[in-house]
Amino acid sequence: MNTVLVQGRIAVEKVDLLRARLDDDWRVTTWQPGDAVEAFAPLAAEADIVVGGGIPVSPWPAVPKLKLFQIPWAGH
């Protein structure tokens, strides 16, 4: 199963739309400001895709499965 991590206040607002458009072989997880910072690294480690803005930890956690980091409002 593929996993997309949607993180950040703005991106999380679109989770329902994303879930409606993805096939059943995708799992959608979320992290947003207000969630425990420690919860981010395990979610990121399982993600094939991260959609959102700034990463809330420094340095980046290990992301062995990551194929794409998408910042949706960055332009084209």
Order of helices and strands: EHHEHEE
Number of strands: 4
Q: Give the CA-based shape.
A: globular
Uncertain segments: none
Number of helices, counting only DSSP H or I runs of 4 residues or more: 3
Class of secondary structure makeup: alpha/beta
Q: Helicity level, as a percent range?
A: 10-25%
Number of domains: 1
* Rg value: 12 Å
Would you tell me the overall average pLDDT?
Answer: 91
- Spatial gap, N to C terminus: 28 Å
Spatial arrangement of strands, main beta sheet = 2-1-3-4
What is the strand content? Answer: 25-35%
Which sheet architecture does the biggest sheet show? Answer: 4 strands, parallel
Descriptive report:
This protein is an alpha/beta fold and 76 residues long. It has one domain. The chain is built from 3 helices and 4 strands. A 4-stranded parallel beta sheet has the order 2-1-3-4, sandwiched between helices. The longest helix has 7 residues. The mean pLDDT is 91.
